[in-house]
Specification:
The chain has 78 residues and is mainly α. It is 31% helix and 5% strand. The chain has helices spanning 38-46, 48-51, 64-74, and strands spanning 29-30, 34-35. Strands 1-2 form a two-stranded antiparallel ribbon. A hairpin with a 3-residue loop joins strand 1 and strand 2 (34-35). The protein starts with 28 loop residues before the first strand and ends with a helix.
């Protein structure tokens, strides 16, 4: 994630391809389209191109368990 996003508290996660991930738990929308719920975050993380074709977020081949873990972490970023 840090190769494209700024992530607070993660050394080296300072890139600006995607939006900064600070305050993810307080955001209303994911990708400007999906309501920010754990289920939608997992959906976005697993298949971002199915949500918004042509966006900069690549399909990373995450398993459902990996996406759930990442979504849980992002929900801690207040």
């Amino acid at each position: 994630c840090g190769s494209c996003h700024i992530i607070p508290g993660i050394r080296g996660a300072r890139d600006l391809v995607g939006p900064p991930l600070n305050h993810m738990s307080r955001r209303i929308y994911i990708a400007g389209l999906l309501h920010n719920t754990p289920e939608n975050m997992v959906r976005w993380l697993m298949h971002p191109q199915n949500v918004v074709r042509g966006n900069a977020m690549t399909e990373m081949g995450l398993t459902a368990a990996q996406a759930q873990d990442i979504a849980a972490y992002l929900d801690t970023l207040e």
